[in-house]
Design brief:
Shape: globular
Structural class: mainly alpha
Number of strands: 0
Largest sheet: none
Helix content: 55-70%
Mean pLDDT: 83
Distance between the termini: 58 Å
Length: about 120
């Protein structure tokens, strides 16, 4: 069964939107431009969520600064392969424990980042 014209058009729009987002992230540094979204958890509590620094890290990664990206958000380097696995593998074949393991990793990283690393 071949995809319909609407499906192909939707994928094209999605790809163009993703390319535009990557281009904006490449050319406009989140550390200096204020139009990027702020973390609600950090704004309310002052705590860093597991993804805080992710946009700045992605900007650095797009410029080839791997070490600077890792310093800004090391969790990004562990989350990217898991995200790729979610995108590549069909829904029905995914491991049942993977979402729970990903959630546990997020919680552990959040605790480590805010409590243990500040000591």
């Amino acid at each position: 069964m071949s995809p319909s014209g609407q499906t192909r058009f939707a994928w094209l729009l999605l790809a163009l939107g993703g390319a535009a987002a990557v281009a904006a992230l490449f050319f406009l540094d989140p550390a200096t431009h204020g139009f990027y979204p702020r973390c609600p958890l950090h704004s309310l509590t002052g705590l860093d969520c597991p993804t805080c620094g992710g946009l700045r890290a992605a900007h650095q990664l797009l410029h080839g600064n791997v070490r600077a990206a890792y310093v800004l958000n090391p969790f990004l380097f562990y989350a990217l392969p898991v995200a790729a696995l979610f995108l590549i593998r069909p829904l029905r074949v995914r491991a049942r424990g993977l979402p729970w393991a990903a959630l546990a990793a997020l919680v552990i990283w959040c605790v480590w980042r805010n409590w243990l690393a500040s000591r």
